[in-house]
Each structure stands twice: as structure tokens, then as C-alpha cells.
Amino acid sequence: MKRQMLLVAGIALAATSVQADVIAPDDVVMSEYGEVFESLTGAPGDAARGAEIFASRSGGNCLACHAVSALSDQPWHGEVGPVLDGVATRWEEPALRGLLVNADVTFPDSIMPAFYKVSGFTRPGDAFTTRPAPADLQPILEAQQIEDIIAFLMTLTDY
Amino acid sequence: LAAGVGLADIRTGGELVINGEIPIVTETAAPEHLAGALNTIYSGWVFRTDETRAMQADDFDNPGMLYVEQGIEAFNTAMGTEGNSCASCHENPESLAGVRATYPQWDEAHGEVQTVEMQVIECQTERMGVAEPYGYDSQQMRNMVALIASVGRGQTVNVAMDGPAAEAWELGREIYYTQYGQMELSCAQCHENNYGNLIRADHLSQGQVNGFPTYRLKNANIVSIHNRFRGCIRDTRGEPYAIGSPEFVALELYVASRGNGLTVEGPAVRN
């Protein structure tokens, strides 16, 4: 019991210290080629968690548009975007981070949503409720979720 | 981007003849105003599974026809202070066979583009003395609009986009190409650039409205055009316009004009 409490306290501490280093969406620095060199959290990404967020409909739902062999156990891979097999051989980590933050910089007018952006929208909503967005609209994905997805993408070295 | 269009996935060649007697045009040359955007227009029927397709080929298998039956009953029932039914003035539903293919349409007396729903409300309030007309997206309205579509099946969609309707048409066009919501997606990005492709489990069509009201297996009911628009903008993490709003009326006119040349098939069956 005591051990568990200590553990919980430890996690809470870790969470706050991570929180302090998180770069807010409006503060992300992007190169003219759409790369983001600095980690959004300073904490390493977790590839397994990234794979889950990639597939989850309430997470990134990347699978809606992208097929990837590594997740062949999941049904319904989309055909709107390129197949992501071998993507880590095509892009470096900063470019992948930039694509997730705002793909429009690399691919103008991309159908791929900007996952770490909170302003500049036309009629933004409060998620899928049809209600208008709240004043403190959150990005579609949290900073650490993006780092986790990048870690997953970096494992995709095979075709 | 056009390279993404999975033309191989568009299962052309199938033929839809409803009840063995109403031929439906599910594929034809795009209207001139779409030059550069689309060469061929397809009914949403083309993108559905064999089972879903088959349900629409016979009225006994089409669950949407149950709502048409209810529409017929309402058509012959007196309502309002004048004691009229629709049939008092329109004789039978078949007398309205030309309506679905040519709406939305400019209404001179009201100085606005009207949808079928708006026209029904006009008859109820201005000619029948109905104090509480059907709600725009109510079950009764959808039943009546499904009836009016069903008697027009097989007629070639031909909505006017010029003359006094031009202003609304332009607004609708602008809306069609606007990227809405937190996901910044336009109708065109899904239905013009990606028809034929899977988006997760959904096979994207061209987003045509010639099949409305559609019976959606998912809802086990018929759904209106504006309800579908609302759902698509909601799915962009956006705030949709209101059902029946001038924006959605304009969008309906524009989208209908993208289907000029297809045929009316409502109530169509969709998933």
C-alpha cells in the first residue's frame, strides 16, 4: 500500500516536471521546410503507446487515411494517404514531427489534419459535438502523444 | 492528389433498374461547370456493397419505402384550418413527379431559393392554415420529401444555377471548397479528390444528393440532405450550419447541380 502511494506520488511528480517542458502549440518553432527539431516534451516517445494512438479512432485515427503493415492485425486501413511502410527511411525525425504538428507547411492544403494547432480554423467545433469550440481549444493530440507516434513511425524501417 | 483516387475501386458497370421498370443513371458525363474537377459523375449507389445495392432495386426490399407509405397517408389527410389535404390541390403525389429533379429552385414570390422542405412548409402555412408546420428535419417532413422523391425516380436531375439562383449557387460553391473545423477539411477534399478511396471503413463517394432522403442502414431510418451535411461538417471537428439555414440551402443547390445528369433515386439505400 505504502509502496503504491509512493509510486503514485512519483508519477505525479514526473507528470508535472514533464508538463513544465511542454512546448505550447503556438510556440512551436518550425523550419521553412516544415521541420520541428525540438521535442515537444523533452521526454522520449513510447513506440507501443504511439501505435495505439495511431490506430485509435478517438486518438490520432491515422489509420483512417494510412495503411501500415505493422498494424495488419487492425481492421480497416484507409487509402487517402500514402502507405507508411518504410516511412522512417524517407523522413528524419524532425520532419515527421513537423508533419504531425502541421502538415500544411510540407504539403500545402494537405487533407492531413494539423494535430498540434489551436487557432486559425473556420468554424471549429468542440470535438465531434457540433457545438462551437471552447475558448481554450486543445490540439487534437497532446504533445506527448505526438512524441509517442513519432517513436512508432521511427520503427517503420521496412517495406 | 488525383493520383490518390482509387479508380479501380469504383465498381462501374453495375446496372440499377428499380422494380424492373425505372432505369437509373448511376454514371454519366459531368456537367460543364465541373470541367477540370470531374469528368464523370457517379451516384452514391456505385460505391455500396452488392447487398446494399440490391436492396434499392426492389421496393419490397427497400426499407425506405415504408416511410413513403407514411408520406402517402399524410398526403391524403386534411390538416390546418382550411380543411385541405395536399391531395385537395395536388390530386395525387405523381402530379409532383417533376419536383425532386429540379429543386432547390428559385421562388419568385418569396425572392429566395427554396428546397422541397421549404415548399412544403409554404403550402402548409400559406395555403392550408397549418399553425405548426412540419419541422424541417422532422420524421413527417422526411416522409413527405421521400414520397415526393419516390414519384420522381428516374427523372434527370436538372437544377437551374443561373439567373436569380446564381448568388446562392456561388455561396454554395464557396462553402463546398472551404476547409472546415479543427481538421480543416472541405467537401471537395473528401468527395472530389478522394472518391473511390477508403477512409477507414467508409468507401468515399462523390457526395451526391440525388438519392435523398436516403435510408441509412446505420440509422435504420431515412435521413435528410441537411442532416447529412451536418454530419460531414461535424466529422471535421467543426460547427455545422443549422439545418434549413441559408448556407445549407445554398450548399444543397450547389451540390445538386454537381449531379445534373444523374437521376432521382430517393429513397436510396446507403450504409
From TrEMBL, chain A:
Q: Which PROSITE patterns does the annotation name?
A: CYTC (PS51007)
UniProt keyword annotations, A-Z: Heme, Iron, Metal-binding, Signal
Keyword Signal applies: yes
Concerning InterPro entries, the annotation shows: Cyt_c-like_dom, Cyt_c-like_dom_sf, Thiosulf_SoxX
Q: Which N-terminal residues, if any, form the signal peptide? A: 1-20
Pfam families from the entry? Cytochrom_C
GO terms (molecular function) for this protein are: electron transfer activity; heme binding; metal ion binding
The segment(s) forming the Cytochrome c domain are 45-157
Q: What is this protein called?
A: Sulfur oxidation c-type cytochrome SoxX
Q: From what organism does this protein derive?
A: Roseicyclus marinus
Its lineage opens with: Bacteria, Pseudomonadati, Pseudomonadota, Alphaproteobacteria, Rhodobacterales
